[in-house]
Design goal:
The complex is a heterodimer of chains A (450) and B (342). Chain A has 450 residues and is of the alpha/beta class. Chain A is 39% helix and 18% strand. Chain A has 13 helices and 18 strands. Chain B has one domain. Chain B has 16 helices and four strands. In chain B, the strands form two sheets. In chain B, strands 1-2 form a two-stranded antiparallel ribbon. The N and C termini of chain B lie far apart (47 Å). The chains are: A alpha/beta (450), B mainly alpha (342). Chains A and B meet through helix 3, helix 8, helix 9 and helix 11 of A and helix 1, strand 4 and helix 15 of B.
């Protein structure tokens, strides 16, 4: 009699079964272990998680950097359950409970980007490689932000940009690992154009002084586009070095140029110096082409207004946020910041604070620090209650879309901080644009082991 | 025409600052033979004399007003400068004119700093090679700027100019071009006139006083003056102090134009050396002439018409001019034979 069940001995069945268990149970774990164990750059292992705060503590934008640091430290205090919570209670997402991020206490390291791209990149690299930062946030200059964003893409670390207003940050230089809450130059142009047309008329000749780097170029381009659509003419723009200090040699040619509007595409101390010096040259009292000469500062902040003093009065610009906004979130943030530091927060403080909260919330919603999952949680995320009204983190370019504010230097300030007033709001719909117009590729979300 | 005049005026006020810094630098080199890389730091220290003076004169009394609150819910602090409380309107005038008044503080402070610097450190390097002098004075400059940074912070500190000098002078109507055609800020005109005044005072001091005559003699032949029984070293120490005062005064009056920060000295250091080299090492008239020349050239190079022909020329004009002048006249415009030539 032949054995028809040849090979099916008890021993063989046991062997085969064991092999089957190994094949179906263990092998997939082997091949997908990267996904489950989530090996990625600076994966937090202890009971703390470290964030890298990289700000300009020296250089042309150092004033902004100091306020940025205050806001970051306040946000981390609130994440860890300290203080009054600021905008945590007003935030539409309710994942943040004051218990750190995913139960880990939030720690931080700081760096000085010196308002220079190479120094910012070095500082960010140091925080990732030496200090174990799982996320980098900061910059007040677009050149710095773009450099840090590119580094973070290489190293697989999330980058939550601070104040960067160049179209390139979420345009041609956008990155999968980079996210920007702040608005951009294109949106400034859309918001400011109609207000300038209303205030100064359609028949104007503009003279641009432009900071000679990515932000200045894109702001100049966006402002020319917006004002020429009104009917204004533009003389050949003049590029000025960042941190020039004395802009007088660039202002004197304006006096006899035939222009009647001086557009200062400057920020930080450069903006303070150029507008102050322009006013010293008597531009406010001059007439050209039968009209009063006007000065426009397309991107303006409270810190600049404070530095410029009387020179800012009556000058139009745009802002991401203002501490005198009356929504509950803005009031809560101003109260929290003012109680801790004795002064109201600037727009850079708000955007920096919000970026830290948004990152923490994205991690909580993703349930992991694993960057590809955090990126997914941020892409296309709709939120509210952080001071800017309903806001979208657009998936296609990682740019936030929300209302943009048109502000004007207050003629009669009631107190030393009452410097700008919101005179108009461009709706989120009006400042939304096709992401294709600025080109660029986000790139892959592949994690790295730094 | 008006555009050219405006750029010329701008060049003159820039040149005034360059000439004042370069004058002190070349004075130290001509008398002591020291290449002083800390000279820019003296300009910066002068600027911070103005900052200190204003901080002192605007010391405030703080009264908490419980009936008013800030936007963040804390009681409002009402701040009033003590000078206003004590002296009324005169106190307000003192605050308004804090920058020119701070000259009174800057002169003794800078004189002491200059003398201490020379006696305490630089005199030990008289007979050392220029390279060592450069290293030690550059190191000193870094130490001084870090001290200022630790006291005053890294950010620029605005210094308001007096209210009466905040507008622009209608120069066009003075010279028959018509009202409003050519205007220029009062403070910049003041700075130019101030620099001319200081330059004239220094030249007059060296030319018409016995002290100045001895110093000039010492610059020409130090040994012979010493053999005549004159303590030339003491006079040269005073000249170092004088150079520090000149740099300091230039810094004081510059503060309303560009808010000073700790890095101000370094920003001017390289520039002032180029001015000295172009003018001729050790030549006082050369430094002044080169200061104004380079200020005017830089101003004209910043005009858009010029930048369209040669992009970026405004950033390199000073250095390009230095290269050309040194090729044509290796000793600079008014340089003397034998200075820094082994």
């Amino acid at each position: 009699m032949t054995n028809s069940l040849k090979g099916f001995s008890r021993r063989n069945v046991l062997k085969g079964g064991l092999a089957g268990i190994v094949a179906t149970g263990v092998a997939p774990v082997f091949f997908t272990r990267g996904a489950y164990a989530q090996e990625f750059c600076n994966a937090p292992t202890g009971d703390t998680v470290t964030l890298g705060l990289n700000m300009p503590l020296t250089g042309a934008y150092a004033d902004e950097g100091a306020d940025q640091q205050r806001a970051y430290e306040l946000a981390i205090e609130h994440l860890n359950g300290g203080g009054d919570g600021g905008m945590v209670p007003t935030f539409s997402s309710k994942t943040l409970t004051g218990n750190g991020i995913l139960g880990k206490k939030v720690a931080f390291v700081t760096g000085d980007d010196q308002t220079k791209a190479d120094a910012g990149r070095d500082s960010a690299r140091r925080m990732i490689e030496r200090d174990g930062a799982v996320m980098i946030t900061g910059a007040s200059s677009s050149a710095v932000a773009i450099a840090e964003q590119a580094l973070c893409q290489e190293m697989g670390v999330i980058y939550m940009a601070g104040l960067t207003h160049s179209n390139d940050t979420t345009g041609k230089d956008k990155k999968r690992y980079g996210f920007r809450h702040f608005f951009n130059a294109y949106q400034s142009g859309i918001a400011l154009g109609p207000v300038l047309g209303e205030a100064y008329g359609k028949d104007r000749v503009a003279y641009h002084l432009t900071a000679d780097y990515t932000w200045g170029w894109t702001q100049e381009e966006s402002m020319i586009q917006a004002t020429e659509a009104l009917g204004w003419k533009t003389l050949t723009p003049v590029r000025t070095p960042v941190g020039a200090g004395d802009f007088s040699q660039y202002i004197t040619p304006f006096l006899n140029s035939g222009a009647d509007v001086l557009v200062l595409n400057h920020y930080g101390f450069d903006g303070v110096n150029s507008i102050t010096q322009a006013v010293q040259f008597g531009l406010r009292d001059r007439q050209a082409n039968g009209k009063n000469v006007e000065i426009v500062l397309p991107l303006v902040s409270d810190l600049m207004a404070k530095g410029a003093g009387e020179a800012i009065r009556g000058v139009y610009g745009t802002a991401n946020w203002d501490w005198q906004l009356t929504d509950e979130a803005s009031k809560a943030f101003t109260k929290s910041f003012g109680a801790k530091y004795g002064q109201p927060p600037s727009q850079i403080a708000q955007t920096s604070y919000v970026q830290v909260l948004l990152y923490a919330d994205a991690v909580e919603r993703a349930g992991t620090f694993y960057p590809p999952e955090v990126i997914k949680a941020l892409e296309g995320y709709e939120f509210d209650g952080l001071g800017n009204g309903p806001t979208l983190y657009r998936a296609e370019d990682h740019q936030c879309f929300k209302d943009v504010y048109v502000v004007k230097g207050k003629e009669a300030p009631a107190n030393p901080y009452d410097l700008l007033e919101v005179v108009g709001t461009a709706s989120r719909e009006s400042v939304t644009y096709d992401p294709a117009i600025f080109g660029g590729e986000l790139g892959p979300d592949t994690p790295a082991a730094c | 025409m008006e555009a050219i005049l405006a750029q010329l005026l701008n060049g003159l006020d820039k040149g005034g600052a360059y000439a004042l810094i370069a004058l002190g630098l070349t004075l130290v080199f001509g008398t002591l033979g020291v290449v002083n890389f800390a000279h820019g730091a003296l300009f910066m220290l002068g600027a911070f004399c103005a900052v200190t003076f204003r901080q002192l004169i605007t010391l405030e009394s703080v009264v908490v007003d419980p009936t008013q609150t800030t936007a963040w819910g804390t009681p409002l602090e009402v701040r009033t400068p003590l000078a206003q409380q004590w002296f009324g309107d005169f106190g307000s005038v003192l605050i308004d004119y804090s920058v020119p008044l701070s000259i009174l503080l800057a002169i003794p402070v800078m004189l002491i700093i200059g003398i201490v610097m020379e006696r305490g450190l630089i005199k030990h390097f008289y007979k050392r090679p220029h390279a060592e002098q450069i290293l030690v004075t550059f190191g000193l400059a870094i130490v001084l700027q870090e001290i200022v940074k630790s006291i005053f912070g890294p950010n620029p500190i605005s210094q308001p100019m007096p209210t009466a000098l905040r507008g622009a002078a209608d120069i066009g109507s003075w010279i028959g071009l018509g009202p409003g055609v050519l205007t220029y800020p009062w403070w910049r005109l003041t700075y130019f006139l101030f620099s001319i005044g200081v330059l004239a005072a220094v030249f007059a001091f060296l030319r018409f006083t016995t002290f100045g005559m001895v110093v000039r003699a010492g610059m020409a032949d130090r040994e012979t003056v010493g053999l005549l029984g004159i303590d030339i070293d003491r006079r040269f120490t005073i000249m170092f102090g004088l150079a520090a005062v000149v740099a300091g005064l230039a810094g004081v009056m510059y503060t309303p134009l560009v808010p000073p920060n700790y890095h101000l000295g370094m920003d001017f250091l390289v520039l002032s050396f180029v001015v000295v080299v172009v003018g001729g090492m050790g030549s006082l008239p050369g430094a002044v002439a080169a200061g104004f020349l380079l200020g005017i050239l830089q101003s004209f190079a910043s005009m858009n018409e010029v930048k369209q022909i040669i992009p970026g020329i405004d950033q390199i004009i000073i250095y390009a001019t230095a290269v050309v002048i040194l090729l044509v006249r290796p000793r600079g415009l008014l340089g003397r034979r034998g200075v820094m030539e082994g």
